[in-house]
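Two quick folds needed for the group meeting slides. Do the first one here.
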Amino acid sequence: MSKDVENPKYGVAQKDSEEGTDAPSHSNETQVTWYSCLLQQASVYGIAAGYCLSASLLSIINKWAVMKFPYPGALTALQYFTSASGVLLCGMLKLIEHDSLDLLTMWRFLPAAVIFYLSLFTNSELLLHANVDTFIVFRSAVPIFVAIGETLYLHQPWPAIRTWISLATIFGGSVLYVTTDYQFTLMAYSWALAYLVSMSIDFVYIKHVVMTIGLNTWGLVLYNNLEALLLFPLELLIMGELKKIKHEISDESDWYSFEVVLPVGLSCLFGLAISFFGFSCRRAISATGFTVLGIVNKLLTVVINLVVWDKHSSFSYTFILDDTAIIGGSVATTNSVEGP
């Protein structure tokens, strides 16, 4: 009888003991999961901050660089060379890890490199023929087309109504600016239209490539910049920039002066930075979210532009436009910045 009584007690005690052992284990798993989520969120915000800082400053530095070195094609080629050689050098020194070069992968990546090259080239031409504010305005219209492309091509859900309202607000700010731009020229807005088309395709298609090609972030930076660099001779022939460069060489231009080397060198360094942070962001968030993030960071660009020189629209209209874009972009980001 005593054994019959003791055995159930022992069983209960044993069960309680097992439950007591499982409880801390479950608690530890919850802690680890929470900590991992926190680290992941911190990583995303850190990458986004790096991208915003790089993009904001690069817009101004590029404008400064093309004023001192008026060859947008050559400038972008120098940026490609710096980024590709920088990745290879750091890889040789074991500072970073990148995917090795492979001809098949290069062929698969080629369309993305061509699109990226066109978007960067039209960006440089737009900055050469227009003020920074005009560049910002047309950059602000890109998310509308990216949202449509992401749904149709990447098979993502249509954005929420609040997102569409936010994107429409950004576009409304763009229209407001165009009606007040005192430096309106047909050439500037032709390049602006080309920039709008190339950037819209860039954000959608490269998002697809980033998620499917199987390269790490530094591998993407290497392949993208190396292949874009290989396309540079074609641009020299099409745009006739080679003749202009040869003429400047014969005229003993001051290319090697500090006034030229400083902005060009900074643009190359920031080109590498934005290439890394840009591909990291493309992995972490949606194509539309990444596009909107690029608009949010333009507030700093406008502030620096107003302080440094007078190549912008009127002060009041600039800030009305930019505030509209920032507010609209922030709301849109709430809906669009999700996982890949």
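Then this one, please, same format:
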Amino acid sequence: MSTKTNEHEYTSTVAVWAANFLLCTFVMALVVSLELGGKSK
């Protein structure tokens, strides 16, 4: 039973990490696009 719990916690941790990574990547891309947009203007 403890193995299943640990496995579930591990999966949740990876899911959260992946979500944070995607969010950071999206924000970085947004900032870069805004920077380029501001420079072109």
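Slide caption for protein two: Residues 2-40 form the longest helix (39 residues).
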